[in-house]
TrEMBL record:
It comes from the Bacteria. SUPFAM superfamilies: NAD(P)-binding Rossmann-fold domains. Residues 17-177 form the Ketoreductase domain. Keywords: Oxidoreductase. The keyword Transport does not apply. GO terms for cellular component: membrane. The lineage of its organism: Bacteria, Bacillati, Bacillota, Bacilli, Lactobacillales. This is Short-chain dehydrogenase oxidoreductase. Pfam families: adh_short.
Length: 282
């Protein structure tokens, strides 16, 4: 047990640790990759956009002075995931930290969403996260240490109009992590769930092309990806279960669970939901 604790604490420095990040070509994933490189990690980034991956790999190499790697990957394809994990094991080494940062959203009323988009969000945000976590958790249990970092969201705790399916996938990530954490804790594996509010990335360019959803968000809730990345790595190798940012959102989620009726009323007013409902009725 003491040896496992020492190995887990060793992850706090990240130096020469192998860190695999999905969704590493942009946004939060890219910020996490660059910050890990600054701390001396051997960074492995995975995503579908190989051109962007090559650029991130080069930046990581410069920042860390250590090898960096990239692998093109569609996280919704289990066979491809297995192949990449086998390649990483052979070419890089065992994974010390896994970060599931791949994700997408579609911020519009659920009655307007296509079944294909609903299925894609479920596959990318939840099923891929569960599959990768399951595969890498076994390796980490065998080696007696490791950390799995999964991107949840404030949306998984506090509902907002126009985010029903996205919020459902993130709530699934949070609950999955709660149980995985219990199952791997005795093997020296940390499971850290990161639940940010809105982050200033290109996510909203695709999820909300109209800009209406983002315009309704309080500005003080919007974080930068770099700020989030620093906070995440500061908590690896510790007993931290969740990161909820901004910090006040922890209390908001507690309040919502206590008085959901009042929470619904306040959220609908904040998002001008009645106006949107009128638009749908028209």
């Amino acid at each position: 047990m003491q040896n496992m604790l020492r190995r887990l604490k060793a992850l706090r420095l990240l130096k020469n640790k192998v860190v695999l990040i999905t969704g590493g070509s942009q946004g939060i994933g890219r910020a996490l990759a660059l910050e890990a490189a600054r701390r001396g990690a051997i960074v492995v980034v995975c995503a579908r956009n190989e051109e962007a991956l090559v650029a991130v790999e080069r930046e990581c190499l410069i920042l860390s002075g250590r090898p960096a790697f990239h692998y093109q990957l569609d996280v919704t394809n289990p066979d491809k995931v297995d192949a990449v994990l086998a390649t990483v094991q052979h070419e890089v080494g065992t994974i010390d930290v896994l970060v599931n940062a791949a994700g997408l959203g579609d911020m519009q009323p659920v009655v307007k969403q296509s079944s294909q988009m609903m299925q894609t969000m479920l596959q990318v945000n939840l099923l891929a996260t569960m599959y990768l976590s399951r595969r890498v958790a076994q390796q980490m249990m065998d080696q007696g240490a490791g950390a799995i970092i999964n991107l949840g969201s404030l949306a998984g705790k506090i509902p907002t109009p126009h985010s029903a399916v996205y919020s459902a996938t993130k709530a699934g990530v949070i609950q999955f992590d709660n149980i995985l954490r219990m199952e791997v804790a005795d093997y020296g594996v940390q499971v850290l769930t990161v639940n940010p509010g809105p982050v200033d990335t290109a996510f909203f360019d695709k999820a909300d092309p109209s800009g209406q959803y983002r315009a309704m968000l309080p500005r003080q809730l919007v974080l930068t990806a770099d700020q989030l990345a620093q906070q995440v790595w500061d908590n690896v190798g510790h007993k931290t279960r969740e990161i909820n940012v901004p910090a006040a959102t922890t209390y908001w989620s507690w309040l919502y669970s206590l008085v959901p009726g009042l929470g619904d009323w306040a959220i609908k007013r904040a998002f001008n939901y009645q106006q949107d409902k009128q638009h749908l009725d028209d």
